[in-house]
Amino acid sequence: MRAAILVDEINAMSQFHGLGIEGIRPWKVFFQALHSVLTGHYGNCEVSYHFYGAIPPKHVDKERFYNRTRFFSALQKDDIAVHTGYCHVSENGEMFEKGVDMALGLDLYDLSLDKHDLLFIFSGDADLGPAIERAQKRGSKVVAILSERQPAKLIKKLVDGVVPLEAVIDLIDANYIVHRSNTQFTKKGEMSYVKS
Ranges for the NYN domain (predicted)? Predict the structure, then answer.
């Protein structure tokens, strides 16, 4: 059994925030929780971890640029493959993530070509629909990780199954969960820009 877990940071953070959670620290425990479920069902299996996010331009926000760079380096040290897009800055200074959905969609398809049996996506973004369908045509099963509060009707209709985010959170030791009342987490590298 070969599997991969793909996390769309902005979509994932939105779902966490809806549950009153600022995030998971370190992220590796989130991936390990899902990995443990796979091991329980299928025995020893090969699972790769993937994280998709963006870095703001250095000339726009130097501190945030360096925080994000350190954050992604920490993920890589935990054997999480990091795939970065970029941020477009509007005239009013608002940042928009670009290229992340495309990278995730392309990887879904590439991983299906590489004979991955099971692909988990932590995203409810309907833009991933065509990539999900193509991965399924190549023989991969695609499972979404979605909060029970997340509508994501199209994704739910397309995927082969849904794992409730709340069930994954229940597998994680409470010491690794940062609640929204603690803003320290966002100062360490998490982004709060808009997904376009």
Answer: 17-162
Cβ–Cβ < 8 Å for 14, 128: no
Phi/psi region, residue 113 (left: phi>0; alpha: psi -120 to 50; beta: rest), is alpha
Judge contact between 7 and 28, C-beta under 8 A. Answer: no
CA dist 174 and 82 (Å) reads: 25
Closest to 158 (Cα-Cα) out of 176, 146, 168 = 146
Residue 158 domain boundaries = 2-195
pLDDT in tens, the chain (196 residues): 999 999 999 999 999 999 999 999 999 999 999 999 888 888 888 999 999 999 988 988 899 999 999 999 999 999 999 999 988 888 888 888 899 999 999 999 999 999 999 999 999 999 999 999 999 999 999 999 999 988 889 999 999 999 999 999 999 999 999 998 754 444 344 444 444 4
Give the CB-side neighbour count of residue 25, counting CA atoms within 13 A. 17
Q: Which DSSP letter does residue 187 get?
A: G
What CATH number has the domain bearing residue 78? 3.40.50.1010
d(CA 96, CA 180): 23
Domains held by the chain: number = 1
Which of 116, 169, 170 is CA-nearest to residue 143?
116
